[in-house]
Amino acid sequence: MSAIQPPVERLWWKQPLDRAELLWILIALAWCMVLFFMMPYWHIYGKQNLANEAYRMGPEQYSKLTQEMVDKYKVREEGGDLKVPVVHPPAGGDAYLIAGLWSWYPILELEAGKSYRIHLMSMDYQHGFSLQPENINIQVLPGYDHVITVTPTHAGTYGIVCNEYCGIGHPNTMGKVITPKGNPVPRRTATPAARPTPAGAPPVPTARKLFPIPLPSATPAAPAHIPS
User: How far apart are CA 28 and CA 22, in angstroms?
Assistant: First the structure.
């Protein structure tokens, strides 16, 4: 049976294969096997695939860890009236990001050439972490602490975009990761947690909780946008 001409007999599947047809089947099979084995190979040796970790964790615990990081390593605030904290965590340490309706919290300031363990978690629904223009994409789910190890190589401001539809404020679900030029030593403005209070003095008020993302049982906040 010819691989080009139509079959002469109606029951064509009972006819023997033409050499050209058999050759193309073998080529397609060989190419499928190449692609199949390239997937695990490229995951191990390629540079664009992330081997992330994931752990079960409640939103209250993750929110507490994030706020402790903000209180300890906050260097300034951005976002106008939103006053989104910019956090400069120590190199080699852990940095926490929260996704929620409809913002990323806080803004991270990382040093070029230093490695960080970045934790990602959603407080409500499924969100997407898309770091642009590097095109790093992670699916962020509630109840799971997703951990990726990153090493910024270039100074600049990188945008975080949610690439999973999360409601009417989805286009505003954005954040930032900043890698300053020269990696200046930050001047931290956060108040130390353990500061002695003089006898007889009124109690020191606690810092305002800069946490615009509600827990699942709370009423969703208004759409938030972090301007460039």
Answer: 10
Q: Under 8 Å CB-to-CB from 19, ≥6 apart: which residues?
A: none
CA distances to 46, 156, 165, 175 from 225, rounded to whole Å, are 35, 20, 16, 8
Q: Which of 76, 109, 64, 84 is nearest to 224 (CA)?
A: 84
Report the C-alpha gap between 152 and 114 in whole angstroms: 7
Return the structure tokens found at 167: 């409601």
Cβ density class 56-91: b for 16+ within 10 Å, e for less: eeebeebbebbbebbbebbebebbeeeebbbbbbee
What are the pLDDT tens digits along the chain (228 aa)?
566 777 777 777 777 778 888 999 999 999 999 999 998 888 777 766 676 789 999 999 999 999 999 999 999 998 888 889 999 999 989 999 999 888 899 999 999 999 999 999 999 999 999 988 888 888 999 999 999 998 898 899 999 999 889 888 888 888 989 888 765 544 443 333 333 434 443 343 333 333 333 333 333 444 444 444
3-class SS letters over 139-154: EECECEEEEEEECCCC
| Strand-pair partners of 99 | 104, 122
- Residue 35, judged by CB atoms within 10 A of its CB (0-12, 13-18, 19+), counts as exposed
Instruction: Please tell me the pTM assigned to this model.
Output: 0.64
Residue count of the chain: 228
Closest CA to 22 of 33, 11, 10, 30: 30
